[in-house]
């Protein structure tokens, strides 16, 4: 049984092409079923078909046809990988090493969902389970997924550096645009509460406030609410500062405050950062942090690659052993058959033995068989990893007279 | 005699692994600050194993014929190091707190060397000699005072880490999210909690000592005065916190208190133990 992979990703195809072959869960499931033993992994960055079959050429052709049927122009952008290379690719994908942002965590869930929605047999089940294991292992043993990869995630991580757990912390949102909303959502996902939304246009502010269960306030009231906030996220299109250092110093009543200024031109007076217990980060500061964390992720990627390669090697050994497993099983069955036959022949002698002695004879004969077969079994598995596996398996069948009905 | 000599050799044998492991941990934490990962893990194991070895060393010392030298400054310094490292282990094994080891472990290794120089890690050197104090008095006075000082040392380390972390935030260091450190709020809260536990221990330990001083008609020496000053600084720390002084200013007060702890532990013991 072999593994074939046909697919395209953000490395090979622009979004206009990728979106033509992108499939939702039901479509992916239906396509996998149509291909036999197959799994379809379809995300915004990739659509890949993993097919297990004895005839690799045929499996590849069917997978290519299925994707070309969706969009004929995709054919030149398709890659084709086989067996260990296909497994290595899937492991890299699950580890986030093939993602736009190295180490991003979403892909692991997508691989899990694809596996669940596909039609995997023994081979695909094994390769996908090992891919999920590899993804988890890489994240546990390297720091590839630890640091934030976007400005809004960096803002939330900074808030955690100041306040620790964000549960119960309150956020004052200044401006009701997309950028501040994104930052707010990141803070919300870590347990913080959006308490106030201040906006020049009352209508937009109220709309966002309702969505977050917050109170809408006019821009002029920001200072009044500083004594109730822990984090201020600002992103307005105001031409000047919407909050100055004097107002902050007067209003915060000694509270520690984190200010995130995502606006250009800036909304918050830089002098706020000089106040004791106040920390102000603007868009440049956050981008510098993200760029540093991404550099760190790339550094960790080398360690992750080594882990992935080792897992791919394990998969290769497992897959190679599949070639000799039927021969080993036949050999062991034949040996067991002989052992039981000889014991039956000696039934007259054994009849005089009590139950304990009979069990001892059973145990001794079983151990003799196991010990005799141990080394040939190990050698067969070792040979399977090299190209000689099939030759050795045939030799074993021939030497021990294992019939075709016992073999593959 | 033979038993005493073998214990002496055993104590000598145990000292070096302790120092080596604490030293390794100190170096490992420097490595952790530069690049988080393997160095930090190795350092944490150094602390764990070193602390176990030091526990064994203290056990050997306690089992000697004339008792553990709590009554000597060097012996009590050995116990103090054990308490500090033990208290550190409560949090130090957690990943974000590894950097706390950067403040604790070099100090622990240095104090252990000082303790050895004064004979505090040896058995039957005669430096320790049997204390003329009763065991109960030692447990209450020396034990509580040392436990309190260990708590203050840990609180000062947490405060030092607070100041370092706060400075990184103020400098807007781009690497701030790559090197894990506890949040400012956590460090501030833990330092305060540690002082809140340590101060009552010092109060009780000092009260027992003063009661003994009065009953024996002895004079108040410089170490007693410095200990009371330490008590006053940490009491002021807790009062100030109750009045809303937290963060960097509170951290500086804890460090000032720790400076007095160092004076009490290193500069003045000869006055008190004479």
Q: What letter string, H or E per element, gives the SSE order of chain B?
A: HHHHHHHHH
Beta fraction of chain B? under 5%
Helix content of chain A: 55-70%
pLDDT below 50 for ≥5 consecutive residues: which ranges of chain A?
Answer: none
Overall number of domains of chain A: 3
Broad structural category of chain B: mainly alpha
Count of runs of 4 or more consecutive helical residues of chain B = 9
- On the 0 to 100 scale, the average pLDDT of chain A is 88
Give the CA-CA distance, first to last residue of chain A.
11 Å
Which class best fits the helix and strand makeup of chain A? alpha/beta
Q: How would you portray this structure in words?
A:
- In chain A, 57% of the residues lie in helices and 13% in strands.
- Chain A has 408 residues and is an alpha/beta fold.
- In chain A, the strands form two sheets. In chain A, strands 7-6-5-8-9-10 form a six-stranded parallel β-sheet.
- In chain A, helix 7 packs across helix 8.
- The longest helix of chain B has 37 residues.
- In chain B, helix 3 crosses helix 5.
- Chain B contains nine helices and no strands.
- Chain B folds into two domains: 128 residues; 142 residues, no CATH class.
- With 274 residues, chain B is mainly alpha-helical.
- Chains A and B meet through helix 7 and helix 12 of A and helix 5, helix 6 and helix 8 of B.
């Amino acid at each position: 049984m072999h593994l074939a992979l046909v697919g395209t990703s953000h490395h090979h195809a622009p979004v206009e092409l990728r979106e033509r072959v992108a499939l939702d869960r039901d479509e992916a499931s239906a396509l996998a079923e149509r291909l036999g033993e197959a799994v379809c992994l379809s995300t915004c960055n990739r659509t890949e078909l993993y097919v297990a079959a004895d005839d690799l050429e045929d499996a590849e052709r069917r997978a290519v046809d299925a994707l070309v049927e969706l969009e004929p122009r995709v054919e030149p952008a398709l890659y084709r990988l086989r067996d260990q290379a296909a497994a290595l690719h899937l492991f890299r994908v699950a580890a986030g090493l093939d993602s736009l942002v190295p180490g991003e965590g979403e892909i692991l869930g997508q691989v899990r969902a694809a596996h669940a929605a596909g039609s995997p047999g023994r081979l695909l089940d094994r390769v996908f389970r090992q891919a999920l294991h590899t993804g988890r292992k890489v994240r546990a043993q390297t720091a590839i997924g630890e640091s934030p990869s976007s400005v809004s995630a960096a803002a939330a991580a900074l808030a955690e550096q100041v306040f620790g757990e964000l549960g119960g912390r309150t956020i004052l949102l200044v401006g009701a645009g997309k950028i501040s909303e994104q930052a707010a959502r990141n803070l919300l996902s870590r347990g913080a509460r959006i308490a106030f939304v201040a906006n020049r246009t009352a209508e937009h502010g109220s709309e966002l406030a309702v969505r977050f269960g917050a109170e809408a306030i006019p821009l002029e009231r920001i200072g009044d609410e500083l004594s109730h906030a822990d984090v201020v996220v600002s992103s307005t299109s105001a031409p000047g500062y919407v909050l100055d250092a004097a107002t902050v110093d007067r209003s915060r009543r000694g509270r520690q405050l984190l200010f995130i200024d995502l606006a250009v031109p800036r909304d918050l007076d830089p002098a706020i950062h000089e106040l004791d217990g106040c920390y102000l980060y603007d868009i440049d500061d956050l981008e510098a942090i993200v760029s540093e964390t991404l550099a760190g992720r790339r550094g960790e990627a080398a360690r992750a690659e080594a882990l992935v390669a080792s897992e791919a090697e394990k998969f290769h050994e497992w897959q190679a052993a599949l070639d000799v497993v039927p021969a080993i099983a036949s050999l062991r069955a034949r040996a067991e058959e002989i052992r039981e036959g000889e014991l039956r022949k000696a039934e007259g002698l054994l009849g005089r033995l009590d139950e304990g002695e009979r069990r001892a004879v059973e145990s001794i004969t079983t151990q003799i068989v196991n010990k005799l077969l141990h080394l040939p079994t190990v050698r067969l598995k070792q040979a399977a990893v090299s190209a000689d596996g099939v030759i050795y398996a045939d030799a074993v069948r021939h030497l021990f007279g294992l019939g075709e009905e016992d073999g593959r | 005699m033979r038993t005493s000599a073998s214990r002496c050799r055993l104590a000598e044998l145990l000292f070096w692994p302790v120092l080596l492991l604490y030293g390794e941990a100190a170096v490992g934490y420097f490595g952790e600050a530069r690049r988080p990962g393997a160095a930090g893990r190795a350092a944490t194991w150094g602390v764990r194993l070193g602390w176990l070895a030091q526990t064994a060393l203290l056990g050997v010392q306690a089992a000697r014929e004339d008792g553990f030298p709590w009554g000597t400054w060097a012996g009590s310094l050995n116990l103090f190091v054990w308490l500090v490292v033990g208290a550190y282990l409560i949090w130090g094994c957690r990943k974000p707190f590894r950097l706390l080891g950067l403040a604790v472990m070099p100090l622990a290794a240095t104090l252990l060397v000082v303790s050895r120089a004064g004979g505090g890690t040896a058995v039957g050197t005669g430096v320790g000699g049997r204390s003329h104090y009763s065991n109960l008095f030692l447990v209450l006075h020396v034990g509580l005072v040392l436990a309190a000082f260990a708590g203050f040392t840990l609180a000062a380390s947490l405060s030092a880490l607070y100041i370092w972390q706060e400075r990184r935030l103020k400098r807007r260091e781009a690497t701030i999210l790559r090197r894990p450190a506890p949040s400012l709020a956590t460090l501030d809260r833990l330092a305060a909690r540690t002082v809140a536990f340590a101060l009552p221990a010092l109060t009780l330990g000092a009260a027992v000592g003063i009661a003994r001083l009065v009953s024996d008609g002895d004079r108040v020496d410089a170490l007693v005065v410095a200990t009371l000053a330490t008590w006053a600084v940490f009491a002021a720390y807790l009062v100030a916190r109750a009045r809303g002084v937290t963060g960097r200013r509170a951290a500086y007060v804890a460090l000032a208190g720790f400076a007095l702890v160092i004076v009490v532990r290193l500069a003045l013991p000869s006055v008190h133990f004479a």
